[in-house]
Structure prediction request, 218 residues.
Amino acid sequence: MTIRGVLFDFSGTLFRLEVASGWLDGIMDDAAASELMRRMTAPVTADSDVPEGFERRDLDELTHRRVHVEMLVRAGVGNHAKADTVYDRLLEPASWKPFPDTGEVLRMLRAAQVPVVVLSNIGWDIRTVFQHYGLLDLVDDVVMSYKEGLLKPDPELFRIGCERLGVPPEHVLMVGDSEEADGGAAALGSAVEIVEPLPTDQRPDALLGALKARGVMR
Prediction:
């Protein structure tokens, strides 16, 4: 298979939610805060202790806010007003950190004239994060579930991504952190590479490795 276009997931793949140490001081320690962030950004969950609507949270902005605010309240951050404030902070671009090779990979693909589309199950506009880090111009398009009314692994969402790339699915590589969600691209005949959603300082070059594994980079 010759790869002529790449789809990237957002959370856990290109960026990771990593809030500053101590920002929830007096509410929970850093370890508990880190676990909460992981649960809130998990592509799928087997956890029964999640609010009603969790599985649909990435289909519209209001549900996304309601579900995550409730999760914050249950985790002990305070009342709903305080949880609302914390939720807003979680959507700030600076709360999201790029993996060490994110910028390098996007620049290399642009230089090689390989189109890139970000394809994300998400309930808010992640383009602000790319803009914050000066990377938005390196992405040809951003396909977001809440805008399309579809969720990965629905093949139709991947089909939309391939159309935005302008590349047939059989020549597209999907890079994500969830076999269940991102692996849905295989239904269209696309290649799939899964990276681990580790803390950014523990995953220096997984994106480069994924592209090299499929012959996109040497």
Observations:
- The first strand starts at residue 5 and ends at 8.
- The mean pLDDT is 90.
